[in-house]
Amino acid sequence: MTISESGPRLRAVAPGEGEDSLINNADSEIELIPPDSITAEQTGRFTFLPVNGAAFVMQVMHPVIGDVVGKYSVFRTDPGGRAIRSIDSVLRWVYGGEEALAEGKRLRKMHQPLKMKNAQGKHISALNPEAYQWVIATAFPTTLAAGPLLIGRDFNDQEKQEILRDNRRIAKIVQVPMRGYPETIGEFDEYFDDFINNKLVAHETALTLIGQMKEAPPLPPSVPASLRPAAKAAANFVSKPVQNLNYLTTVGVMDPRVREILGLTWSNKEQRDLERMHKVIRGSYKVLPDRLTYFPLAYHARRHHAAIQAMKKRETAGAAYKVARQA
């Protein structure tokens, strides 16, 4: 598989375009994610959830995103529903085919009305170009950092190039303004360092998210008051292993400098526990059928791709008509 980014280069931004422009990338400029790519394989796994959690925390460390999410998101009252809807959207970017283009435009339009004044009285928007870029960019460093957990080793240089290529493809799918978006790993390292050193903060929204990871999801209002204490205790007991995996993975794949900004500690014991958990998960992936380890859309998309590839392979094994070789 080639790892070069083919297709048109970044287009110039026309006068008047800015954070309120909905369409930054024409359909002809967008390439879909290959179904057999590293991105498709890792995004489709259920273990994508905690790795994505690390990216989400880093997103809301950007002051604009933290403020907007803190005001408009339902992550406090409906964390499970928010997570499911977020995953639904991401899976469509990667596996949706032409639906990926529609989902990217829908997402961009959905964020257009999310505007507010921050604590300093400045008008901010969810479509702020720097902030909107950062949302997608966070997936690259978290995926690389999670390599030892996901595949049992660091990604090699060629794999890193492929992951960055697909990160840029996703950025175009979700209509990120591409001017200034890193094109090489060297550029991305500089971009990431600049955010850590100059832009990310220990935002209240990020700290709230970290706190949520140690707690069971809130009970639905339909649970009677008389049953709520027992139901809460049961929920805490049942969710404890999942919450622990989620917290350790989220914090464990963060850059140490990001943990420092958030005031989070990380011990050798936590690192060993994290590695043990994912070693068990990797082992289970080798023996469990894909239907039990992939999200449904990912499973069926990968099966579809495998069937097409098998058909192409059979085409080379023979021909409907044999043509005699010319003397």
Beta-strand residue percentage: under 5%
> What's the total count of β strands?
2
Instruction: Give the helix proportion (percent range).
Output: 55-70%
State the distance separating the first and last CA atoms.
Answer: 37 Å
Structural class: mainly alpha
Alpha carbon gyration radius: 22 Å
State the domain count: 1
* Overall morphology: globular
Number of helices: 15
Q: What integer is the average pLDDT?
A: 87
Low-pLDDT sequence parts: 1-20
SSE pattern: HHHHHEEHHHHHHHHHH
Strand order of the largest sheet: 1-2
Main sheet summary: 2 strands, antiparallel
Overall description:
With 327 residues, the chain is an all-alpha fold. It has one domain (27-217, 237-299). The chain has helices at residues 38-44, 48-59, 63-72, 79-95, 98-111, 129-137, 139-145, 147-150, 157-173, 185-198, 204-212, 228-252, 256-262, 268-287, 296-315, and strands spanning 115-117, 123-125. A hairpin with a 5-residue loop joins strand 1 and strand 2 (123-125). Helix 2 (48-59) crosses helix 12 (228-252). The longest helix is centred in the last third of the chain and has 25 residues, at 228-252. The radius of gyration is 22 Å and the shape is globular.
